[in-house]
Amino acid sequence: MPEEFRTPEVFPQMSFSDKFVGILSSPGEVYDYVAKLPEKQNSNWMLPLIIATVLAIIYTFVVFTQPPIQDQMHDAQLKAMQKSVADGKMTQEQMDRAMEMNPAKPGSPMFLIFGSVGVVFVMVVMLLVYSAVYWLGGKLILKMPTPYYKITEVFGLSFFIVAIGTLISMGMAVGMGSLYAQPALSLAVSNFDPMNKTHKLLAAVNVIEFWQMYVIGVGLSKVWTTSLVKALGIVGSVWAIWTLIKVFANFGFGM
Fold first, then answer.
1. How far apart are CA 97 and CA 101, in angstroms?
2. pTM for this structure?
């Protein structure tokens, strides 16, 4: 009896535009697709990362060349150095020399170059570190042996939200003439002080960031095959811990 030949099953592909629209409107459908993919698909994290990074570099060139924002940054630098003088960490003469000789003044070519390089670094680190944290959270807390690359795809696709948030923040910063203008509770503060812990906590309650967290939670629930509540619990815990570190330890690298 002749051997029967079977045509290999072809896994249906989801287009780039479908993924973009789906992450914004129905992330569950996109992540159902990601969870069922038989092998890694690097475009799931690479393309959103590139788009978000390019927009963040554009943000750097547009926002930090605005005179009101340059003045705002100069005042913040001056205030920080004056505090160092008051604390005895540097002398008044050292402060004056540092302010005068600073080659990376806000808006200068060197500032924009270093800022752009920093953006690329931060974006890549965000992808790798957050993916690693969620991978560990799923493995240690939920006992889910989901491959690291699958978590990277979930988190990477959420960079579509980051891209949208960058455009919104850029428009608000330019329109309001403030570096601290963003869709967060800090909008209620008339004179935002980046050294004030309460103000920083208010800035952390950001609509775009919470939207991204929800999308990530949906994605993790699909690849972990667990409830949305459990996935959001881990995502929310990571956010809370990192926010407290940034606020009370003055640490963050912009993430």
1. 6
2. 0.87
